[in-house]
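SAMPLE LOG
Freezer: B-3
Tube label: C17
Construct: single chain, 184 aa
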Amino acid sequence: MAEQADHDAGLVARIAHGDRAAFAEIYDRYLPLVLRWSLRETGNREIAADLASETFAAALIASPRYRASKGAVGTWLLGIARNKLRESRRHHRIEDSARRRVGLDRTELTDADLERIDELVSLDAGVVELFDGLPAVLREAVAQRVIEERSYEEIAADLSCSESVIRQRVSRGLRTLRSQLEEP
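STRUCTURE (predicted):
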């Protein structure tokens, strides 16, 4: 995981210097994560796609300011998505300032596009339901560690507790999910 994090941080550094292939690799790797989060937060595929698009455009603009020491690329992207969603809720529409700044027009989604979004975000509904059923402290720890790929140290600092407490919460959460999945 540390190798992947270092690789991704290097890609963002290359993006900051105009490397389109590096951007494409980050986009391909993290689009499902950003779309899943966006869909979960908005409940609408079209809005989730717009939010994901704005997130990646903003990431392209912000790439020179990315610091790996502040968190993994996935965490950084979800932070951008959170900020874009907050702005959008304040203005009652999905912001598109970053997309306009990098010269991207809004694309009308076809049925095939919507099906692709469904593919990218598809998670077994049962797993999502089980995950949502975890106690909040376990769900938060698992989400930050597994989905956002944050370090135990980062999570502990954010939640003002020890790393061992976070490790226990993640372990309990994953053990609970595994046992519920294995039940007949």
